Amino acid sequence: MHTVFYGAGGIGGYFGARLLAAGERVSFVARGRHAQAIRERGLRVKSPLGDVQVAVPSISDDPAALARADLIVFAVKMPDAAAAAARLAPLMQATTVVLPLQNGVEIVDVLTTALGPGPVALGAAYIPAKIAEPGVIEHAGGFASLRFGALQPEQRPTLEAFAAACTRAKVQVELVDDMRRVMWEKFVFLVGMSSLTALTRLPISVVRADLELRRLLQQVMDETAALARAEGVTLADDFVAKQMTVVDGLPAQAKASMANDLDAGRPLELPWLAGAVVRRSQRAGLAATANRFIAAALGPYASGAPSATTR
């Protein structure tokens, strides 16, 4: 099968490189200095699970320059999602499946607006990874896995084939039936992790060790779990408590990608994380006080570092 990774950042670059190293047919849509470095020197992954260096024979910033895809792994950040979705048409054929791995709970709506519901599946990536320098992906933790599922029955064979390819590449995957619940489970955790590591500009070890920051982290997740339940998603009563246990097991220096974007002065996924909790909670009649504070405090940085004239 031909898998196109739309985006070669921490997620797309890591998993795409693993598949290429295992001999799978992979292409990338990527741009800028990172893409140029990949063309010239290949794609390198630095990881506790084993380093990889692969040549990338098929990469372009123009989707029309690539062969049509059996599966598109849609791995751009949410601020770029709508514009990228509008450029997918040259990669599509009748049976193409689009598998989004974005943070948040609103990507299906973005892709369905552009493509209709037929090709849009749903997935989640669990990996702390980033572009360390052009052409180099740095994986900071010992975990790297994908969970995904079909939203239409006809998508299942393609997703099964992708799961088999990932298994050959020694990538941990799970094909699940109730992907909407899985999406919200990740969302609860990620809103907390992104909010507190970005707000403090510090790694998770500092957040979890400080009593007040730990309480704020749990409140952010409690509010997000309450929203999930209000939207009809079943979460166990002790779900947030178990997520706090996960937090305690994270590598000391772990930070969410939004915190890395804040440090680098890049646009933030804030409107689709804490911001989305605030918007959707308001519709559901929920207060979401902690998320509202996070969204307000980080709001000036949502479009990137504020200019000197706005400070």
Can you offer a commentary on this structure?
The protein contains twelve helices and twelve strands. It has 311 residues and is α/β, with parallel strands linked by helices. The chain folds into two domains: 176 residues, 3-Layer(aba) Sandwich (Rossmann fold); 121 residues, N-(1-d-carboxylethyl)-l-norvaline Dehydrogenase, domain 2. A five-stranded parallel β-sheet has the order 5-2-1-6-7, sandwiched between helices. Strands 4-3-10-9 form a four-stranded mixed β-sheet. The protein has a three-stranded mixed β-sheet with strand order 8-11-12, with helices on both faces. Helix 5 links the parallel strand 11 and strand 12. It is globular and about 50 Å long.
Count all strands and give the number: 12
Q: In what order do the strands lie side by side in the largest sheet?
A: 5-2-1-6-7
Fourth CATH level, the homologous superfamily of the largest domain: NAD(P)-binding Rossmann-like Domain
What amount of the residues lies in strands?
Answer: 15-25%
Content-based structural category: alpha/beta
Q: Return the string of H and E elements.
A: EHEHEEEEHEHEEEEHEHHHHHHH
By CATH, the architecture of the largest domain is named 3-Layer(aba) Sandwich
User: Over all CA atoms, what is the radius of gyration?
Assistant: 19 Å
Question: What overall geometry do the principal axes of the alpha carbons give?
Answer: globular
Mean pLDDT: 95
Helix content: 40-55%
Distance between the termini: 51 Å
Q: What count of domains describes the coordinates?
A: 2
The largest β sheet comes out as:
5 strands, parallel
Would you identify the regions where 5 or more consecutive residues have pLDDT less than 50?
A: none
CATH topology tier name of the largest domain: Rossmann fold
Number of helices: 12
The CATH top-level class label of the largest domain:
Alpha Beta
